[in-house]
Design brief:
flat, Alpha/beta knot, Helicase, Ruva Protein, domain 3, 2 strands, about 0% strand, mainly alpha
Length: about 160
C-alpha cells in the first residue's frame, strides 16, 4: 500500500469536522483493494512487537475511544472559550459526488486514450489515491466536473469541425 499509515491519535481528528466514516476490514484479511479505494486516510494502531496484530473488536474500540477522547476535549475547549466558535471549515464533498467525478474522469480518459480498458482499473486506483489525499470540497469537485464537461464538449466540437 503506497499510502502513509498514520497513528489514530493524529489521523482521526479530521473526522470530527464533518460527516465521515471509519472503514474496518474483515478480521482474517482486511479490506479489498476496491474497498481501499474509498478510504482517504489509513490508520495503523501501534502495538508491541511480541503481539503485532489486534483483532477487529480491539481496533474498533481503540478508534472509538480516540474519537470520544477528541470529542470530549473539543467540547470542553469550546465551553471554556468566551468567543463564538469558528465558522465551519470548507467541508469535504459527499462521497457520491466524488464517485460521479471519478466516473466522469475515467470516461474522458478512456475516450482520449490515456486509459486503456484492460489497465483502466489499476490506473484509476492510483488516480483515486492522489485525489483522495486532497479532500476536495463540493465546490472543487463541481469545478473539476465542469472542466471534464468542457473537455468533452471541445472534443465533440473539434471532431465535427475537422469533418
Amino acid at each position: 500500500l503506497p499510502t502513509k499509515l498514520e497513528n489514530p491519535r493524529h489521523s482521526l481528528p479530521w473526522l470530527l469536522g464533518y460527516p465521515a466514516a471509519l472503514i474496518f476490514g474483515r478480521e482474517d484479511r482486511g479490506l479489498t483493494n476496491v474497498e481501499l479505494n474509498y478510504a482517504q486516510r489509513f490508520v495503523r494502531i501501534p502495538s508491541d512487537n511480541t503481539y503485532r496484530s489486534l483483532n477487529l473488536a480491539q481496533a474498533v474500540a481503540i478508534c472509538c475511544y480516540e474519537l470520544y477522547h477528541l470529542q470530549t476535549i473539543a467540547l470542553s475547549d469550546q465551553k471554556s472559550q468566551d468567543s463564538p466558535p469558528n465558522p465551519a471549515p470548507n467541508l469535504e464533498a459527499p462521497i457520491d459526488l466524488i464517485e460521479a467525478y471519478y466516473q466522469d474522469l475515467e470516461t474522458l480518459l478512456l475516450k482520449i486514450g490515456y486509459l486503456y480498458p484492460h489497465t483502466a482499473s489499476s490506473r484509476m486506483e492510483k488516480i483515486r489515491r492522489l485525489f483522495n489525499r486532497a479532500y476536495p470540497s463540493t465546490e472543487e469537485v463541481a469545478m473539476l466536473r465542469g472542466m471534464i464537461r468542457q473537455m468533452n464538449w471541445a472534443l465533440s466540437n473539434h471532431c465535427e469541425n475537422d469533418s
